[in-house]
Design goal:
313 residues; binds zinc ion; 11% strand; two-stranded antiparallel ribbon; binds iron/sulfur cluster; 2 domains
């Protein structure tokens, strides 16, 4: 099959959801354009931004860092070593090699050193690994960004991630989560920097193809804790629908963003008008670590305390 853009080279990437197929060069043009449109649509980034890119060693986050550098943004990568055995060691190696090849040094937070490796902390606090992981990662994204003067935190969530999260939120009618679901979470002051997801328009397959064609070396294996992540079930369900009806996933998520205001007004009675969610003000600073929080101590310090108490028993 010939590339549908240049009509000259052989197509290397088939995109049924766009009714297209591209050669590598034309696919690069297509992919970059999708990301650019995604950034511009909600003003996710500004050329003056200092961007902290959260990199896990997987394809999405490394592709994100790569493309943001290519676009000329001022970026640094943050790698959080979750303390998940060999998987974390291999991921760290990939991130450090990726950064070094581009003359960069990734910022590394080692959760073993911080006293909160994910498997042990989950066990001691009697919580799911992924719930603990979410709390800990959010905490360090903010802490590193605020303490080092970054204006925005970027994560590599793609269209598949966001659509499956949307399906999960709808299945359980999580009104508040639906309200917060957006490629942009504005700065809430007090050290809660802006969070953006610049890959929200591109699918997992497109990101993987871009990473592969660009020769980005990433960790192929999934996090071993992901086997019982419910998000995978929603992803599988959507993949099945997408296979039968190409384009459905993108219609689903992009349609949600467009109709969000009207939809949520009727669901929650709130006047959101579809504007990016603006988090409310926090009530103050955590008495233990000084991070912004709604309670006396922040979620991270409460988790650390609980895990610590259990370890001392
Ligand atoms: S699968 Fe769970 S534990 Fe593993 S990185 Fe994702 S959220 Fe963290
Ligand atoms: Zn072409
Ligand atoms: Zn705290």
């Amino acid at each position: 099959m010939k590339c549908k853009r240049c009509r000259n080279a052989a197509a290397a990437v088939d995109l049924p959801s766009h009714n297209s197929a591209f050669c590598p060069d034309c696919f690069f043009v297509f992919f970059r354009r999708q990301v650019e449109v995604g950034i511009r649509k909600y003003s996710l980034l500004d050329p003056s931004d200092r961007v902290l890119v959260c990199v896990s060693g997987g394809k999405d986050s490394l592709v994100l860092w790569d493309i943001l550098m290519e676009f000329g943004y001022d970026t640094e990568g943050l790698y959080i070593d979750l303390g998940i055995g060999d998987y974390s060691d291999r991921s760290r190696e990939k991130v450090l090699a990726f950064a070094a090849a581009r003359g960069k040094e990734a910022i590394v937070v080692d959760l073993r050193r911080e006293g909160v490796p994910i498997p042990e902390t989950a066990k001691r606090s009697h919580k799911e690994e992924c719930a603990v992981c979410g709390t800990v990662k959010r905490y360090f994204f903010n802490r590193v960004a605020a303490s080092r003067g970054f204006t925005v935190v970027a994560t590599g969530h793609n269209l598949d991630d966001e659509a499956s999260r949307l399906l999960g939120n709808l299945m359980h009618w999580h009104g508040e989560h639906l309200e917060r679901q957006h490629p942009l979470l504005p700065d809430a002051g007090e050290g809660l920097v802006r969070k953006v997801k610049p890959l929200w328009r591109v699918s997992e397959m497109e990101t993987a193809a871009y990473g592969f064609l660009k020769g980005i070396d990433y960790v192929v294996e999934e996090c071993p804790m992901s086997h019982d992540a419910t998000s995978l079930v929603y992803k599988e369900a959507l993949s099945l629908i997408e296979e039968k009806m190409p384009g459905t996933r993108s219609n689903f998520y992009l349609g949600f963003l467009t109709k969000k205001g009207t939809f949520l007004n009727s669901l929650t009675g709130a006047e959101t008008n579809g504007a990016p969610f603006s988090p409310g003000e926090t009530s103050g600073k955590c008495t233990a670590c000084g991070a912004p929080t709604y309670a006396e101590t922040c979620g991270f310090c409460r988790l650390k305390e609980k895990a610590g108490k259990e370890a001392a028993r």
